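Problem 3 from the worked examples.
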Amino acid sequence: MTGLPPVVANDQQARRDAEHLKLLAIFHFILAALGLLGIAFLAFHFAFMRAIFMNPEMWKNEKSGPPPEIFFKLIMWGYAFGVVVMLTGGVLNLLSGLFIRKRHHRMFSIIIGGLNCLHVPFGTLLGVFTILILSRDSVRKIYEVSGGSSSGTG
């Protein structure tokens, strides 16, 4: 880009930023969908484990340890926690994708990108790219021009 006039260079950067923001929004939607898929997997796994733990034939010779019904009630809290985490992550990624498409609430999307970094490996990749792209000065200006809140307060 060294030989290009500033107007052409800025136009190319604007097109690149628009494409990157479009891809970021799409991948936030995909991660939200994967959260819903994870909830479906948990529901299937729950049904499978319930069938095992509530089958009296399977436990009739077992004399040690807590009754399977009590143990299963404890496991249910783990399922509930997993559903809450996946549902929350899915909703937050859906909102972030919508905000990126509309060029609003840049800081919200950066925070969600940081949280996504905890979801190895796909969330980590998406989180790092979200933070890198939304931290660019050229992207910050796009958010300011579009009337979206760059600081996340509006």
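Problem 4, a separate protein:
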Amino acid sequence: MKRKTKFWTRAWQVALAVVATIFAVYPVWFVVIASGRGSGRLYTMNLAGMFFPLEWTFNNYQIMLFQQPFLTWAKNSLMVASLTTIGCLLIATSAAFAFSRMRFYGRQWGLVLFLAIQSFPGVLSLVPIAQLLTAMGLYANHWGLVMAYVTGTLIFTTMNLKGYFDTIPIDLEEAAMIDGCGPVQSFILIALPLARPAIAVTALFAFMGGWGEYVLASVLIPAPELKKTAMVALYKLANDINVDWGLFAAGAVMIIIPVLIVFLFLQRYLEGGLTLGGVKG
């Protein structure tokens, strides 16, 4: 009886895992199939064609690469996402280390303020951010968009890194200081190498935030076609009167590729960073 119950429990677990996998994978597979249709349709009434590529052509990819300025859009997105990642890492690592290791006046209130700002609806900050960038001469400029992204993701990245620094024994840094290292040297030579998993997670989230964000990019870069990021350009492409869904799907597939490359590059660090980053508050 117990063995029979165990069997049905395992069967339900496998069935739920299969259903969850289908719901997670099929939307991506649907877009891949649609990107190879030459008729510009998003879907087909043929049941088999909904799951298998009965017709396939690379014309949509060729048009996006050589007739549409997709490479320019992708270059803009790559520049913004890369600078956002670098900016977040430079500021968040040092800020997180300071909150983790140093005891200064206003430290606890600073952490509380971080949480309060994080809970503030981001959409409401669009107008003041646009006003600030206009006053600085950075409105409709990629550098202004990078500044907005860095400040928007800085709180999460700082809190994530702070949690990881809390798990690193302070004795290692104290031992390095006894051997002659200063605070900055112990941070660079001891803390940063040990925090590589959390830094990898931070880099991935910062890159994804700069690469796939739409709302801020559409408001802060109301510029000519060639200055748009890939996500904004694709949305505009889908809003045309006659939408060629095959082109849209091909662009969506190509947008996924850089994120997959970054994910695969950082994959060996991600598990440790995600599981250890929140051990201590």
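Solution to problem 4. Residues 273-281 have pLDDT under 50 and may be disordered. The first helix runs from residue 2 to 35.
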